[in-house]
Design a protein that fits this description.
Elements (H helix, E strand, L loop, with lengths): L4 H13 L3 E3 L6 E3 L1 H9 L7 H24 L11 H20 L4 H27 L5 H80 L7 H29 L2 H4 L3 E2 H19 L2 E7 L5 E2 L2 H21 L3 E10 L3 E8 L6 H4 L23 H12 L3 E7 L3 E9 H4 L4
Parallel strand pairs: 4-6
Antiparallel strand pairs: 1-2, 3-5, 6-7, 7-9, 8-9
Length: 424
């Protein structure tokens, strides 16, 4: 029922708009504004499936016309069959639109105008000739010219509205990007000051390492025994000072990167776009043949976008690394779904999989199966432990993993809507 809800709402809007129009050929055949609303809905941010929407819209228009006729004349006996041809119009509009948009593409507004025009004209011709064939309505050659003109006008109106909406969105995005850029410049300047302290502490860490190694050498060869205690205290004191400096730096970075300070929230649709583009670049740099597939589902707004981006990016990077180290060819799929209370995120890959004995340890800090035996380099294994910590501690969710050796790995994440969609 939840999947049908947006279709029912959209169909109700189409049905209401269909009452605005004029009759052509006879009182039963109407040219209405319903198709304008239908086309705008099909080109909204989260487009619905054209054929399904066409069928539901046709049924809604038919039902509404019957209700109005019954209220006006007290009976539907003389029109219940004739009005059914309108269902054909909306059905074939959806079919023609879906076929042409896949063939010609609908991203470019000029190509979309062609798709709209042909869909409108084609569906109207099918309806009118069906009426002539099955209900013995008279044919007038001027009707075809009228339908051609109407299809042109309606398509032009839709094109103008969509162009206006697109330019309006561009203006809003430009203003938003200017604000975000100013905040980013400010954030970068603040982060650089924190980096200064971290770089300074690297020198202190080198000193501690030198002192610790010197103490080790003295203990190993039993040299300068009287200075062991003083060196140990010095090392402990220096480590404590470094820890305090890093605590201040980390606290400062946390304050700077707090969601409310940096950019507010973000829609999940935008998160997916950023994530997809980022992963495509990673795959291209690795020269792998990895297919990406995103099923983002219904979008939502979240101020936890940094956390969500970190989780999904980390899981996908693990998948890319696994495939790159194996066959360099595979597929990664991200699926998002939701119910009344929870958001669900599933990341699946067709990589080499994980050994059964390793699966229980993959979220353990420091654990890694990625060792380069040629160079001795080992992945730190912090990725999945960080993901688990963010999911469970920051977002109050759960994460599970399942894997089949040689076939791939799947991560399933559940996060409460109340947490992920919480306002600032």
């Amino acid at each position: 029922m939840k999947l049908l809800k947006p279709y029912i709402l959209a169909a109700a809007l189409v049905a209401a708009a269909s009452q605005i129009g004029l009759s052509v050929l006879n009182a039963d055949f109407r040219i209405s504004a319903g198709i304008i609303v239908l086309a705008l809905i099909l080109n909204w941010d989260q487009p619905l499936k054209p054929i399904r929407l066409g069928i539901i819209s046709g049924l809604s228009v038919y039902a509404l016309r019957l209700c109005i006729h019954a209220l006006s004349y007290g009976s539907i006996q003389e029109v219940w069959l004739s009005y059914q041809f309108e269902i054909l119009f909306y059905l074939f509009y959806g079919i023609i639109y879906q076929v042409l948009s896949r063939w010609l593409g609908s991203d470019h507004l000029n190509r979309l105008a062609i798709v709209l025009f042909i869909s409108d004209l084609g569906a109207n011709l099918i309806e009118i000739f069906s009426r002539i064939l099955f209900s013995s309505s008279p044919y007038d050659a001027e009707i075809t010219i009228t339908l051609l003109f109407v299809a042109l006008i309606r398509s032009l109106m839709i094109w103008i509205v969509l162009n206006g909406l697109r330019y309006y969105k561009i203006l809003l995005l430009k203003e938003e990007h200017e604000v975000r850029y100013a905040r980013l410049v400010w954030l970068t300047a603040q982060l650089k000051s924190e980096m200064y302290w971290m770089e300074k502490n690297m020198e202190e860490i080198e000193k501690v390492m030198t002192n610790a190694y010197t103490l080790f050498e003295d203990i190993k060869f039993d040299h300068r025994r009287e200075g062991w205690g003083e060196k140990a205290v010095t090392i402990a004191r220096d480590v404590h000072e470094i820890k305090k400096e890093y605590e201040l730096a980390v606290r400062g970075i946390k304050e700077l990167t707090a969601d409310a300070v940096v950019v507010g929230g973000m829609s999940f649709k935008d998160i997916c776009k950023i994530l997809y583009d980022s992963m495509v670049r990673e795959i291209r740099e690795m020269a792998c043949r990895i297919e990406l597939e995103f099923e983002s589902g219904e979008s939502f707004y979240t101020v936890k976008h940094y956390f969500l981006m970190s989780i999904l990016r980390n899981l996908m990077m693990n998948s890319i690394d696994a495939i790159e180290a194996d066959t360099k060819e595979g597929k990664i799929k991200m699926v998002h779904d939701a119910d009344q209370d929870q958001h669900y995120f599933i990341v699946t890959d067709t990589g080499p999989g994980i050994e059964p004995e390793d699966l229980d340890q993959i979220f353990t800090p420091g654990f890694s199966t990625k060792i380069n035996y040629a160079t001795g380099h080992i992945n730190r294994g912090l990725g999945l432990s960080v993901v688990q910590n963010i999911v469970e501690k920051e977002l109050c969710g759960t994460i599970e993993a399942e894997s089949v050796k040689g076939k791939g790995t799947t991560f399933r994440i559940t996060i409460p809507k109340a947490v992920l969609e919480a306002s600032l």
